[in-house]
Predict the 3D structure of the following.
Amino acid sequence: MMMSSSSSRHALWYTHLLPATVPVLLLASAVHLVSYFVFVFLCFLIPWLQGLKLTQLTLAHEKYMDHATRRISSLESQLAALRESRKQ
């Protein structure tokens, strides 16, 4: 870009500075927007994952309690059978 010799140093500085800042500003805006969308995505994803974990823990506890109840019933029936065999 050729400037006339009558241009001031400020004019030359702005003619070189402004075109150079456009890509920097576009890149900074893109980084900011991407980081914002990642933040928003994580704000919605983390509670959803916590809900899934809570559901998994609840189901695992129900499975354990069901197994424990069946085991207790089995042991009680064995105990009742042993007591019956002792009475005879």
